[in-house]
């Protein structure tokens, strides 16, 4: 999710995280290693075809 910066994000534990960027990519998938900021981890996914048997 792209938001106009600068921003201050408050996490559920009360921690505040700031970004001074003009546009800030906020992670909405929770896969980011830089959470709450997006690190493009949302792009990496393993596709499982329902008709293919699972490989070992
Ligand atoms: S939205 Fe979560 S890593 Fe990009």
Summarize the structure in words:
A hairpin with a 5-residue loop joins strand 2 (7-10) and strand 3 (16-19). The strands form two sheets. A two-stranded antiparallel ribbon has the order 1-4. It has a two-stranded antiparallel ribbon with strand order 2-3. With 56 residues, the chain is mainly β. The mean pLDDT is 89. The protein has one domain. The radius of gyration is 16 Å and the shape is elongated. The protein is 0% helix and 25% strand. 0% of the residues are buried. FE2/S2 (inorganic) cluster binds next to loops.
Features:
two-stranded antiparallel ribbon; binds FE2/S2 (inorganic) cluster; elongated; 56 residues
How much strand? Answer: 25-35%
**What's the pLDDT, averaged over the residues?**
89
Largest sheet: 2 strands, antiparallel
> How many extended strands?
4
Secondary-structure element pattern, one letter each: EEEE
Strand arrangement across the biggest beta sheet: 1-4
Class based on secondary structure composition and strand pairing: mainly beta
Q: Helical proportion?
A: under 10%
Work out the count of structural domains. Answer: 1
CA distance, first residue to last residue: 36 Å
Low confidence ranges: none
Number of helices: 0
* Rg, Å, rounded: 16 Å
Bound molecules: FE2/S2 (inorganic) cluster
The shape, in one word, is elongated
């Amino acid at each position: 999710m792209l938001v106009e910066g600068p921003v201050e994000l408050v996490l559920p534990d009360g921690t505040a995280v700031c970004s001074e960027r003009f546009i800030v990519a906020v992670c909405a998938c929770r896969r980011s290693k830089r959470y709450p900021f997006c690190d493009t981890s949302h792009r990496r996914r393993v596709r499982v075809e329902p008709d293919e048997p699972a490989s070992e």
